[in-house]
Amino acid sequence: MKSQVSEWGIWVLLFLFLLPLFSLNVTGLHGWGGDFSQYIHQAINIVDNKDVADIGYIFNENNPSLAPSAYPVGFPLLLSPVYAFFGNNMIAFMLFISLVVFLLGLLCFYFIKIEFGMLAGLLATTLLIYNPWTIIFKSNVLSDIPFTLFFLLSAISYMFWKNKRSAILIGLIIGFTILIRTIGIVIPIAIAIDKLLNIISKNKSQSTNRQSIKNEIKELLTIILSSIAFVILMHKFIFPIPNENGYMDIISYATNFDYIGNHLFHYIELTISYFTLENASWLSVFHGALFGLFSLVGFFERNQKTMFMRLLVLGLFGVLMVYPFTQGFRFAYPIVPFLIYFFFNGVNRLISIPKYKKIFLAFYILLTLFLYVPKVIGFQMHTQANPLFSGPQVDVTKEAFQYIKEHVPEDARMVFSKPRVLSLYTDRACMGNSYLQADEMQRKFSEKNINYILINRWLAEPNTSLDLYVQKYKESHLDSIWSNSRYVLY
């Protein structure tokens, strides 16, 4: 009874520890980006019972890397209740992301606690959730953190749920993870390899009966088939998305794979920066070096759990190597909980005496808090004192979007550097820049029936393709019909 009260007390403390997430970096002001607006627009379509891909985004074959014509529906489905209750409210969306981070912290605690204990679980949550990168990034209404939550949940369900009837539920969780980000396909692949290795091992064992092997095969097929069936059901029948102008078009945009080496070093460097706070001081480098040492030791310890997690990490990294474009650390973020697991696995391996292990973990959590807390507080104070002065929610942009809604015909087709953002806030079809010579751009605009161009003079750089186009065709083809301190509408 006493231990139960003590465990409940730890969970209450963890809740209190994570509560500041709902106030940290929740500003209601979103950066330009573009992905966030497509996710929100698709969520709006789900609530309004419209075609999920009908977001007014005119796909530009000359710039396919900007975005596919529709994202998988997993994250828009998560956003749709927020829109249904609060409308297109950026504060509400940011609080929802904070809730996802909160749940990720609880799940990470559970993930580490069940194997390494309470103190390790608390340290793991700190390393994942209160790392300054996470606090800074969580203001973005993007799929990366929700994907990390379900990616981790998929792994936990596979590794720790032993009920025979859980295979279908595990498959559904994995299927929804794939619906959030297509790269989630590495999960069933990792499970298939892990199961096959386990089956081969059991087949070699004299003591293993055939029924045990049949059960492994049955569980593997159930998980994989249920996950695939769920994805097909959602994307082909309930919320169909177009086959054309998707991720394969983006990948095929790369004519060769000479960038793989650069991607490898890019993501390794970003991962190191995450744990060393971008080499902010010798103490943070020391903190990161300790983490790296123990993680490497834990990574190479051989057992079934670490084998499966290695497959997940290597699989996700492998896809990132092939994908032609990088997006900072956000794409690699889902591996962090597993690196943390390897860290504690390495601690167990190198520090065998429980007393010394507790001393080390206590020291490391104090060091982590000493490094993280000042940076998080400093960032929060800076954010409050210096709000974003560029983005969709600032007054000068809202003025431009309001003018378009009131004066530009509903069937107009526009060009803007952030086409999905303009479409979300104006309900006008829009295409991004073409990145072509001026004459080729004119042909492309004619082909796509473009009749309006919005330019953000503050963001635009001289001698870019669109700037050169305006310079050449300003007198013959373009009429300036409205402007304010930052925008010109032609």
Give a verbal description of the structure.
By secondary structure, the protein is mainly alpha-helical. It is built from 20 helices and 6 strands. A hairpin with a 3-residue loop joins strand 5 (482-483) and strand 6 (487-489). Helix 7 (144-160) packs antiparallel against helix 8 (167-180).
Pick out its properties.
490 residues; mainly alpha; six-stranded mixed beta sheet
Strand arrangement within the widest β-sheet reads: 1-3-2-4-6-5
Helix content bin: 55-70%
Cα end-to-end separation: 73 Å
Order of helices and strands: HHEHHHHHHHHHHHHHHHEHEHEHEE
Calculate the mean pLDDT score and round it: 91
- Name the beta content range: under 5%
DSSP helical segment count: 20
What's the number of extended β-strand segments?
A: 6
At a glance:
The chain has 20 helices and six strands. It is mainly alpha-helical.
Summarize the topology.
Blueprint (H helix, E strand, L loop, with lengths): L1 H17 L16 H13 L9 E2 L15 H13 L3 H27 L1 H12 L2 H6 L6 H17 L6 H14 L5 H19 L5 H29 L8 H6 L7 H17 L5 H18 L4 H19 L13 H15 L3 H32 L9 H13 L5 E3 L3 H8 L2 E3 L6 H10 L4 E5 L8 H9 L8 E2 L3 E3 L1
Parallel strand pairs: 1-3, 2-3, 2-4
Antiparallel strand pairs: 4-6, 5-6
